[in-house]
Amino acid sequence: LLMPNMAVRAELVEGRASRALLVPQPAVSLNADGSASVFVLGEGNVAQLRTVVLAGSKGRSWQITEGLAPGEKIITNGLRYVKPGMKVTISREGN
User: Which residues contact 57 (CB under 8 A, 6 or more apart)?
Assistant: First the structure.
């Protein structure tokens, strides 16, 4: 029973998406038409723009249910310089 000026903190579980992937929020571009996209590293290290379906967020990541497959590499840094079809150089942070 809550009385006036009392508060409660709750975490509600909406459901579980067993095939969802978590992607860092800065790697996802939100488009004017409401869609979302990411750059995937394709064959020959070529950037490919891929439309994805967002199911929500978890912490600092977007939950993606369609458009990506497990094991695919996404581009997370330097996105303002990347264009579809551009050859990309891979670097690992911290090395």
Answer: 25, 63
